[in-house]
């Protein structure tokens, strides 16, 4: 690309982890990049903003786990230091404290999953129930994130999976389902078994330290996305907010070619493109498809309308006094049958509240359908009562300010049977690419790390198509430990052998 007029034009739709990742790398490679964000601020669901009183709020608190190698590499590249030290966490039920987790990397490393099993402190769950999870290890070996593995396990629910492998009812109720409620945002009977296996393995079981987590020392929007956007703009990229995509312009298909995208439409504006990257969530993508006759003409995009999303409620409460909270990050279960929730001591996590005279707590609820219709005062009252069950001293504190953010259909619902309808990075339109935490890929990561990785993968696909620039270097997840690799190899040999001998009775 020798001049401005000859630069290839790429439009990236959505300014979250995926979109910023794609835009940043393409801008560094000299592309004419325009990043379109439907909201008022870059960042999507993690964009922070101020209340009328000038207090920082955001749409929920997001952790950064030990395997997030690419995000940790990004902040190093940006020269910023947004994260807390590694934190310990706890789990509560209406009966009180249930589980305490150490910082696993500080303890002698044991072969997976022994470290997770031995070092996690269960307060009430009997050893016999914990041992009932052992047969489930076969499913974790069998699920290798391949296309065949997703086909095997996506059609069944996580609840069916755990029951099939003999997990005790108590272990499921007090351990596995709480993980699903705060990890996949839905109860086990509404979660794909494939997604459950992938999430549990990546965040908890693959390596001893994988459950270790740090938190942003303020809103992600302020601490990470603002300097990231500055870097994109310095590299020549444009970031345009309040631009909701309503259609795309396709070049008609010739006799020997597929239709290609020529433009991205935002109301009366049309942005000409040589390639485009969509980096929006399921709900955002469904809005675009619903408004776009061009995308509706293609089956893979029509099929996206079969996918679902989950409601989230994010609350922040300011109390009039200091309250001792043993651990900064906490997960909770059993308060509502189908809802998981988390709460965080922001005095310990966020720089802004470190010297606050009172206590600031964030409490986020997932699969929060039953809460969204309630008025703010009722929600705050419920949240305080739930927090009091976990931390009794909260009962005597007064709420002096609060924020309630309702997020309908905010996060991906990995429901049973949803896998065939999820898009791949490369679409039938050769210069239109997809990214986000719901896009099918083989990297093996989840959540924010997966979104960022798929953004880089989409940028690399655009570079390969347009033929200019260097691809982004994507760090792989840590390799399986030798005994896991051996187990998976033996399992695959057995599958191939039995499949050859009894093809009619063996699933792929």
From TrEMBL:
Gene3D superfamilies: FAD/NAD(P)-binding domain. GO terms for molecular function: oxidoreductase activity. It comes from the Bacteria. Pfam families: Amino_oxidase. Residues 18-462 form the Amine oxidase domain. This is FAD-dependent oxidoreductase.
